[in-house]
Amino acid sequence: MSQAYKQILEKLNAAILELDFDAALELCTDDTEWTFEGNKTLKGKKAVRQWMETDYREPPDFKLHRTVAEGNYLVAIGEIMVKDHQGKSVLHNYADVWRFRDGLMAELRAFVVRAL
To answer: How far is residue 41's CA from residue 72's CA, in Å, rounded to a whole number?
Structure first.
């Protein structure tokens, strides 16, 4: 299953880069829960869609460096440019921990920190 999970993540990332939120959310369970550690938790596709529409007005600039899979989990490690309150792009490192259920993304725990 680990290869299948990696392919699902690749499809999700490709959809987000195209700003195709419908295609991205098709890869998630209806009750998907996305937690941005230290910030907020989104529950359900509607909440995730609202967040995407607000935060992804333009495609994000990110690089996926590595994925590690075990059981129903996939960890994605990379870097992403995030705009601050003044609109300046700032480099951040991230580790996303995805939990899958029935072949769909059921949970995300995102750990994002500003790069040094």
So the answer is: 20
Q: pTM for the whole thing? A: 0.92
Residue 79 phi/psi, 5-degree rounding, is -140, 150
The DSSP call for residue 10 is H
Quote the domain boundaries for residue 26: 2-114
Distance, in Å, from the CA atom of 85 to the CA atom of 34, rounded to the nearest integer, reads 22
pLDDT of residue 104: 98
Pairing of strands 61-70, 73-83: antiparallel
Asked whether 108 and 34 are in contact (CB, 8 A), the reply is yes
Sign of the C-alpha dihedral computed for residues 73, 12, 78 and 88 taken in this order: negative
Nearest-angstrom CA–CA distance, 3 and 65: 16
Our count of domains for the chain comes to 1
- State the Cα–Cα distance between residues 54 and 34, nearest whole angstrom: 15
Q: State the CATH number of the domain containing residue 41.
A: 3.10.450.50
Structure-token pair, residue 110: 């995102």
User: What letter does residue 65 receive in the DSSP assignment?
Assistant: E
